[in-house]
Write a structure and sequence with these properties.
globular, 8 strands, Aminopeptidase, 29% strand, binds coenzyme A, 27% helix, alpha+beta, single chain
Length: 209
Amino acid sequence: MHQQRATPNDRTTRQFVLPEGALALGAGLGTLRVPRAADVPALVAGTNDPEVRRWLPVPRPYTEAMALRWCTEEAERRRREGEGLHLAVTDEDDGLIGTVCLKHTNWRTAQTEVGYWLVPGARGRGLATRACRVLSQWALSATPIERVVLVAATGNTASQRVATQSGFTYEGTARSGGILFTGRTDLRVYSLLRADVPESAPGETTDNQ
Ligand SMILES: CC(C)(COP(=O)(O)OP(=O)(O)OC[C@H]1O[C@@H](n2cnc3c(N)ncnc32)[C@H](O)[C@@H]1OP(=O)(O)O)[C@@H](O)C(=O)NCCC(=O)NCCS
């Protein structure tokens, strides 16, 4: 049995509400927290990274003004309007080292989609897997969401590994399902269901993995 869902993310919820504004990534690691103005320089640098631009259709160039608007208005607007939840992935000193989000949320069908990127220096240590798993498991155990989708371009091996390492199941390929700057791409589609999530809710302790 899953733990009882905590308010305010009850059945009538149509927006995500984070407990105390953050989820713990695990012992000795940072958190997933709401973005803030101090994140702007790291957000600009990270979003302009060639690998991020290769696999995500982010604006080119991604400017300081765009980042400031994202941190101070846009992320919260999307949360408030129920579209999703856009968070900073932080290191142990609370600095932004990437982002992870829930987006394209459909509250009627109780589905959402997870997305992520990390700055180059933070890659290769399992952090994207942790961030993806913590946020997805939280959505499935503490909110009305029943299904989290993850899509990765067929060429994006790293992201596909994050999906399977996070416990997602491969479902198939959405032909020409995504747009990159190089053109349309097939997408590999993965999902995580509530039934896939272990009982203990993520983000409640500092060592939950
Ligand atoms: C995708 C991304 C977030 C992965 O971050 P990460 O922190 O390096 O991922 P993890 O350390 O959790 O690694 C997860 C798995 O991917 C593998 N992996 C990481 N980078 C890889 C690469 N370039 N090629 C192949 N496999 C890779 C890891 O070895 C690990 O697999 P393992 O557990 O079997 O060893 C990061 O590469 C990134 O920010 N890429 C650009 C943006 C992006 O593609 N976002 C996703 C869009 S769908």
